[in-house]
Amino acid sequence: MAQVEARGTDTDPLVAGPVDPWAMRKAMLSEFWFYFSQNKGAVIGLCVFAVIVVVAIFAPVFAPHGPTVQNREALLLPPFWQSGGSGAFPLGTDAVGRDILSRLIYGARFSLFIGIFVVTLSVSSGVLIGLTAGYFRGWIDTAIMRVMDVILAFPSLLLALVLVAILGPGLINAMIAIALILQPHFVRLTRASVLSEREREYVVSSRVAGAGVLRLMFITILPNCLAPLIVQATLAFSSAILDAAALGFLGMGAQPPTPEWGTMLAEAREFILRAWWVVTFPGLAILITVLAINLMGDGLRDALDPKLKRS
Amino acid sequence: MLKFLLSRFALLIPTFIGVAIVAFSFIRMIPGDPILLLAGERGMTEERYQQLQAVYGFDQPIYIQFFNYVGDILTGDFGTSVVTKRPVLEEFFTLFPATIELSVCAIIVATAIGIPAGVLAAVKRGTWLDQSIMGTALVGYSMPIFWWGLLLIILFSGILQWTPVSGRISLIYFFPPVTGFMLIDSLLSGQAGAFKSAVSHLVLPTIVLATIPLAVIARQTRSAMLEVLGEDYVRTARSKGLAPNRVIGLHALRNALIPVITTIGLQVGVLLAGAILTETIFSWPGIGKWMVDSVSKRDYAVVQGGLLLIAAVIMIVNLIVDVLYGLINPRIRY
Predict the structure, then answer these.
(1) Per-residue pLDDT tens digits for B172-227
(2) Partner residue facing B138 (CB), from A251, A286, A294
């Protein structure tokens, strides 16, 4: 604690004359990193996530085989440490002789893409709708919140499943459906923060100074509502990966032979009692990725939530 | 109190109308003509097509169709399954007890383990015990439960052969359903071994379905306890010289439980979403598997009716949780 205060004084822009926005940003960032790195789990999560990102980007470099290349002479081969396993296929092969490690490496691309796509879509639409509801109040607010109540009245996975049934099975449609079921959380969160911010003095003074509606909404109010949104976005990233894998597992997400982890599990189901490795590794990949993101989310909450920070 | 109940119930009405609109539009948003979908690949004559249009009311204006639909729902007609030709409501009530049985067992397990684990973690804050409990909870929270179920099947059904892979009871037992709950029915049947068989079928699905609620409850209990343990009245109780267990159990836990109970109530939606996956893995004949099967068989009447019924169940349970919250929290008076 004393450490932070000491840091605060030598870069404190409010005391030291004219505000240097860069110095202030640097100070904020170093304060953020101080709290984030206090949480060991969060740092581990960040490292694991960084590794997954690197592996996904350079998938062709790391993967020993193509993700859909079938090796007819190596069907259901066990991992290399078991008898019958081969170093050419470190984590074994599936029922049509595809290398599981290579499929997992390429699958990381899909999981990260799913997370980014869903979070971008649900955050941008959710924030826009939430800002509108919170800023304008009145009947617009009531109408928007009732629609969100309707979406939240269904179990999320069931709604996603039914939406995909309407749109047609496939990864893009699954991502759209998941974005739609995650978006009410962002609407509610943004609206709640906007409601508490909009009557604050800095907003009122900005309005009196003649700021327009868009400026007030996006430049004055929104940056002050970001902290809880960032934490929620991290959680949405991991739920998106889990839900997309679940839809893939139910046959409604990415379609074979896409090396998406949930779809790989669905294909592996009939071999569970014969070839444990076909089932174990894709699920482990999902678990590790989701766990790393959730660990980061806990650290972000500690670093960004001012209520918890000081306790 | 009655006023509060009525006002909460009145708030549900617009949501329910919204849910009905979603369920109603669903069958009309599917690409293709619903009547032709009914016919499948065989096709049908123009005359039969017109006749079916009239039967299903598709020749009426859309708002009349909606009012007819709401009228049907209010009189208990949720449509008829295209596959089994049975009324949707009848199928729902046949399968729902299986889901309730599984969900109730899961929530009991999650509460019975989650609350003590959370209390222990809060009391031993910062120790290895706290860290390992919270670490395990985070793993549980991040678990893809469909994979977790498959792993448990590999271990307990495949390698150890302790539990069966699927279903609710072994096929050698047969008795007419009385309550629809297999645990109770198997006891009532008086057949030796039936209850044991029902329990052994229930163990793995319960563990799988309880995993995420368990993690959520443990995390919530810990943070609620930590908050309460810092309160003045807990310090007073301690300084009076009360035994630590009494302070934790009586003074702290009772107050910490209030937000935890809300969390448990909110798990109903999570449980029903989890039931979709759990029932599919273990071939558990409940409404989750019913919905997945209906989606894949394109039995849209069932999907439409099921969607509405499941949403109604969740809304009613949330209302009950709200009321219970008021009853146990003396700070809220209506």
Answers:
(1) 888 888 888 888 888 888 787 888 888 999 999 999 999 999 999 999 999 889 88
(2) A294
Residue B285 lies in a domain: yes
**Mutation for testing the B interface, residue in A38, A148, A150 having most B CBs under 10 Å:** A150
Query: Exposed (0-12), middle (13-18) or buried (19+): which is B53, by Cβ within 10 Å?
Result: middle
Question: Contact A149/B135, CB-based, under 8 Å?
Answer: no
ipTM (interface pTM): 0.86
Instruction: Compare all CA atoms of chain A with the CA of B21 and give the residue at the minimum distance.
Output: A150
Are the C-beta atoms of residues B209 and B275 closer than 8 Å to each other? yes
Instruction: State the CATH number of the domain containing residue B268.
Output: 1.10.3720.10
Residue B143 has its nearest CB partner, among A154, A265, A287, at A287
Answer yes or no: is B70 within a domain: no
Q: Is A128 exposed, middle or buried (0-12, 13-18, 19+ CB in 10 A)?
A: middle
Closest in A150, A279, A295 to B154, CB measured: A279
Please tell me the pTM assigned to this model.
0.88
Number of domains in chain B: 1
For B132, name the nearest residue in chain A, comparing CA atoms only: A41
Say which of A161, A286, A290 has its CB closest to residue B295. A161
Phi, psi at B127, each rounded to 5°: -85, 175
Q: pLDDT tens, A191-219?
A: 988 988 888 889 889 989 988 888 888 88
Spacing of C-alpha A34 from chain mean position: 23
Residue A67 token pair? 């993700």
Helix (H) or strand (E) holding B174: none
Domain of B137?
95-296
Domain ranges of chain A: 38-67+75-292
- Looking at 3.90.180.10, 1.20.120.550, 3.30.420.40, 1.10.3720.10, the CATH number of the domain A38-67+75-292 comes to 1.10.3720.10
Chosen for mutation from B19, B150, B290 (greatest number of chain A CBs closer than 10 Å) is B150
Q: Is the peptide bond before A257 cis (omega within 30 degrees of 0)?
A: yes
A157: nearest Cα among A188, A137, A180: A180
* Burial of A114: CB neighbours in 10 Å, binned 0-12, 13-18, 19+: buried
Q: Which residues are A99's β-sheet partners?
A: A93
B136 lies in some domain? yes
Which residues in chain B are contacts of A255 at CB distance < 8 A? Answer: none
Dump pLDDT digits (tens) for A58-104. Answer: 999 998 888 888 888 878 888 888 888 788 888 988 888 899 999 99
On average, the pLDDT of chain A sits at 86
B127 in a structural domain: yes
Distance from CA of B219 to the nearest CA of A (A): 12
Question: B11: Cβ–Cβ under 8 A, 6 or more apart, which residues?
Answer: none
Range B3-17 average pLDDT: 83
Q: Which of A150-159, A206-215, B261-270 has the lowest mean pLDDT?
A: B261-270
